[in-house]
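A brief tutorial aside. Many learners find it easier to grasp structure tokens once they have seen a single protein encoded end to end. The record that follows does exactly this for Phytanoyl-CoA dioxygenase family protein. Read the sequence first, then the structure, and try to relate runs of similar tokens to stretches of the chain.
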Amino acid sequence: MTDDLFAAQGFCAVPLFDPETVRAARDDIAEQVDRVARALYMPFEHSLPDVPVGDRLDRIAAAERSHASLLRVAICTDAHRGPRLTALAESPALLETASRLAGGPIAGSIRRVRASIAAFPEHRHDWHSDVAIDDGTNCGRVRVTAWMPLGDAGPEDGGLELVPGRRSAPFEHRRGDGFAIPEETLAGLPRVRPVCPAGTVLFLDRFTPHRTLPVAGAARFALVIWFKAG
Ligand SMILES: [Fe+2]
């Protein structure tokens, strides 16, 4: 059923993990913030270590935006190397599902944490597919993306919006401020905003257009894994 949905729609949501295990992986993010905040001249207390990590960067940004900005980059650069996130990324169930949906063995992957934070709306991703140019180069070898929110994510809390449908080529992306599919290209096409509770992984085909929806409250963190074919 899952595989049929993926083959037809270019995405599927699969409950794979215990929700509490996934929520607990946010501690890797809090620890990353602590570690980087301790390395600065800025007193550690200014990083608000007692505030829950979902609210922490918004609160820091209200006082010192550049401080929060640096911590956000640190999260997106290598928080994924934390032990809890590593365990999730290396789970056999995840790899097995990705390889089945990709239709063949996985030769490698790239991992990152992605953060949607109300104070930094400029970092929300506009419409794109994870393979934008199908030229067989490094990025072009991505077959399937696993998007795993570290909490409940949906239309109201920083989920994704997708244009369903399996495609054999990417929509054309336009270079501007970023690299995105123009809104008019997607006009009239159906869109879905999947509800993705903690523990569920959203798998996307390489050519499925998606974008980040705004987050109004606590930050939404997600572990993203781009699985590549050989
Ligand atoms: Fe993406």
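Self-check: The radius of gyration is 18 Å. If you spotted this yourself, you are ready for the next section.
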